[in-house]
Amino acid sequence: MSGNRSLQRIFDQLAAGIELLGGNSYRASSHRRVARVLRGLTDDVAALVEGDRETAVRRLTALPGIGKGAAARILEFLETGRIAEHERLLEQVPSGVFELLEIPGIGPKGARSLWRDLGVDSVDALRALLDQDAVAGVPRLGQRTIENLREALGFRAETEGRTPIGVALPLALALCERLRGVEGVARIAFAGSLRRGVDTVGDLDLLATCADPGLLRDAFLAMPEVERVLASGEHRCSVRVRADAAGGGRALQVDLRMVPASSWGAALLYFTGSKEHNVLLRERAIRRGQLLNEYGLFEAAAARPQDMGGTEGAAGDRPQDSGEAPIAAAGAGPPVRGETPLAAAEEADVYRALGLPFVPPELREEGIDPASVPSDLIELGDVRAELHAHTTASDGKLTIRQLAEAAKARGYHTLAITDHSASSVIANGLSAERLRRHADAVREEDARIRGIRLLAGAEVDVLPDGRLDYDDDVLAELDIVVASPHASLRQGREAATRRLVAAASHPLVHVVGHPTGRVVGRRAGLEPDLERLFAAAAESATALELNANPRRLDLCDRHVRAAVAAGCVIALDTDAHSDRSFDFLPYGVMTARRAGLKRDACINTWSRARLERWLRRKR
DNA sequence: GCCGTTTTCGGCCCGACTGTTTTCAGTCG
């Protein structure tokens, strides 16, 4: 994967460099698209191009957005470890100038001007310049802009990176709940990458319809979490809020858009993204003689009257404002197109009018064909079993009985008790002796309790060399074995592959738990050869876990997609340590849906009888 | 640089908001 990451960075830099040097912006965005495509690849790009050069080029150019030029550059990198054009670029543009682009409010034009006109070649240089008040009199750099830059620099120092979904979702739900109470608010929801279930988000996007936008805006800006108002317009406001202690006190941006009720669907679609999905939909609309924007889907003729004469894309070529402008703003509100939209009120209407099936938010990503949506995509209510849970015997908060009652209350037909094994000392892992007594206790409780089946199991450590932390005769006594890596999560690719393949191939193992051991946004975890791991799991019918804990989400969406394509089944578990842990399930389901996981490929959706048959095959 | 249901040239999504401007450029999503 590291080759993919280096290539992504290079293509992103090529794109930024073209813009910084004032080159063709379409050329820049096509480089940027290559970077995104590489980011979406599951496995190493080097594996994709094995074989002769002609085959390699054909495989690469088969990817959307990668043409002959990009293919040649990718091959150049794989052969030589570098790309000549990229090195030439770095000779021309100091590396610090690229960092300027990461500051909100600074785009390519601004960075270029700071660099060329003022000699600012790094974020530190910009900070020094602002501290010295040395920017007075520079064109397009007024007092407000300078203040905003100072503010942005402070913000940057404070919040590195994106916000994990486990922090963002509860905050978004709380804000929606609060604003729903404002008089006149009819609908409010979150959109953006959070609605698509991405494991980290850059900001929150809220969408609302209301009778009196002014009231809602005032309420929004006055929320106690708001630290700073970034923008406040008629249709849109942006603020910076601070999450509570549970959210790590993290600051993040929240945008609120207010739209007419009649445009709800088109706006929700638009603000949910992804950007690439929106572009696909708009291009489709254009081909069908239509126009799609956040207010609806329109007949293009009605929206675009007589401005066809010789525009070259330059901004100055817009039709001059005249009394007969077809887009009559009528004082307030969005542009009225003078014509009823073909569809706008609900998302499903827009898809239907475009001749497409409804695409669930989780599948609106680059590279996913809107016309190919699986009909039996997994849903929250499909999950009927929790197969990875801890009690007070190791590091859980609940007794066997309490955990069983909690699972039963959630409607599960089966709960597996899988406490830690001995080498997880911090988690109070069980010795073989303790495990045997614990399993007896689970079976006694199973005999007593009604309405749920309890399985006696263990989450056994996969040791760094691939051996398991219990002997086979101990494992054979259990109803279910989840084997998970917990330590040595930085070992090399080959060692990690051997370790996980050994676990997946072990005849007594049912599930490989959180296979990579990653922690979202903090720890990359193991980076095994996924092709070999998935082949081993498929071969021995071992399930791979999608751990629903939002800190983990492991396997991640791309990996689940590839695992299922390789013939694996997936175990979707919350790794419950308390009653509240069961609330993690939606995160896992969203991730599973992003992977296109069908109900039947997830063992937690199976009937009790089918699940038990499957478990017994390894006993 | 990439792409094609007006395909090998000529396009390339669309609108809101800010700040610094007197009509718009730059940035963002």
User: What does the largest sheet look like?
Assistant: 7 strands, parallel
| Silhouette | globular
Helical content (DSSP H or I, runs of 4+)? 40-55%
Extended strand count: 16
C-alpha-based Rg, rounded: 27 Å
Low-confidence stretches: 302-337
Strand order of the largest sheet: 10-11-12-13-14-15-16
What distance lies between the first and last C-alpha atoms, to the nearest angstrom? 36 Å
Strand percent estimate: 5-15%
Calculate the mean pLDDT score and round it.
87
Computed structural class: alpha/beta
Query: Count of helical segments?
Result: 25
Q: Could you explain the architecture of this structure?
A:
- The chain has 619 residues and is an alpha/beta fold.
- It contains 25 helices and 16 strands.
- The strands form 4 sheets. The chain has a 7-stranded parallel beta sheet.
- A hairpin with a 2-residue loop joins strand 8 (290-293) and strand 9.
- Helix 1 (2-20) crosses helix 6 (84-92).
- Mean pLDDT is 87; it is low at 302-337.
- The protein binds one DNA strand of 29 nucleotides through residues 18, 24-31, 33-34, 64-70, 104-110, 139-142, 144-145, 148, 192, 203, 205, 231-236, 238, 255, 257, 270-271, 273, 275, 278-279, 281-283, 285-288, 291-295, 313, 315-316, 318, 321, 334-335.
